[in-house]
Design brief:
It is a single chain. Strand 1 and strand 2 form a beta hairpin. The chain is globular and about 70 Å long. It starts with a helix and ends with a helix. The chain has 246 residues and is mostly helical. It has 13 helices and three strands. Helix 4 packs antiparallel against helix 5, helix 4 packs across helix 9 and helix 6 packs across helix 8. The protein has two domains: 164 residues, Ribonuclease iii, N-terminal Endonuclease Domain, Chain A; 74 residues, Double Stranded RNA Binding Domain, CATH 3.30.160.20. 61% of the residues lie in helices and 12% in strands.
Length: 246
């Protein structure tokens, strides 16, 4: 019955064009079309071109949790002799926003987002869409299918796991080491704390020799410090934007 329903979506449904676009992107025909439509409906585009009056934030929330669980299990089995600290760092490298943005780019999700949203695309929308898609796949096909899909079609296809092992994404630590090496002082200051979408958001500044080099905002203070450190490294010429985006 499920197979017949998918064939109906692909050939006869009023949403057959969208079903075919999903097949091109994902490699399978969706069952519940509306969930996948929602995965591509960004909150900044709630107008006549939006697919639904809702947006994909709830699916992002679900997809983030499902993805984190599957990645944790994948790493647990792949590195049977590694400790908790290593596994935690590796999971963070995989599920962080920048990595998901790159995966979304490789999956060519920008084309689908552009078709179904009347808004200027930002790079972070790609990572958001990846999480929302994971949530949609989970609701549509269940955990076992989602697990197999993420491992085989995302992790193994779009990530170089061994390269990630040696990749240092602790920009705060790198910047501190650079400042110590060059005899410079470094400090972080909370510039502001404000409400955004009913959540606390932190704006943090990084100061080198008492001069503010960069600022960054995030829902987590430590994450804001990391982002500010990354921007400061680019500003100071320690890290190039091209290198950072590789």
């Amino acid at each position: 019955m499920r197979v017949l329903f998918k064939l109906f979506n692909f050939y006869l449904s009023k949403d057959k064009y969208f079903a075919r676009r999903m097949y091109d992107v994902l490699g399978f025909i969706p069952g519940n079309i509306s969930i996948y439509k929602l995965a591509f409906s960004h909150k900044s585009s709630q107008n006549e071109k939006s697919l639904l009056s809702q947006n994909n934030e709830r699916l992002e929330y679900l997809g983030d949790a499902v993805l984190g669980t599957i990645v944790a299990e994948y790493l647990f089995k792949k590195y049977p002799d590694s400790n908790e600290g290593f596994l935690t760092k590796m999971r963070s490298k995989i599920v962080k926003r920048k990595t998901l943005n790159r995966i979304g780019d490789k999956m060519e999700l920008d084309g689908v987002l552009q078709e179904f949203n009347n808004t200027r695309l930002s790079r972070s929308m790609l990572g958001n869409a990846v999480e929302a898609l994971v949530g949609a796949i989970y609701l549509d096909a269940g955990y076992s299918f989602t697990h197999k899909y993420i491992v085989e079609k995302i992790l193994r296809r779009y990530l170089d796991i061994h390269e990630l092992e040696n990749y240092d994404d602790n920009y705060k630590s790198q910047l501190l080491e650079w400042c110590q090496k060059h005899g410079k002082t470094i400090s972080y200051k909370l510039i502001s704390r404000y409400k955004y979408e009913k959540r606390d958001r932190f704006k943090v500044g990084v100061f080198v020799n008492n001069q503010r080099i960069a600022t960054a905002d995030d829902f987590n203070k430590k994450s804001a410090e990391q982002s500010a450190s990354e921007k400061a490294m680019i500003e100071l010429g320690i890290l190039s934007e091209e290198e950072d985006d590789d």
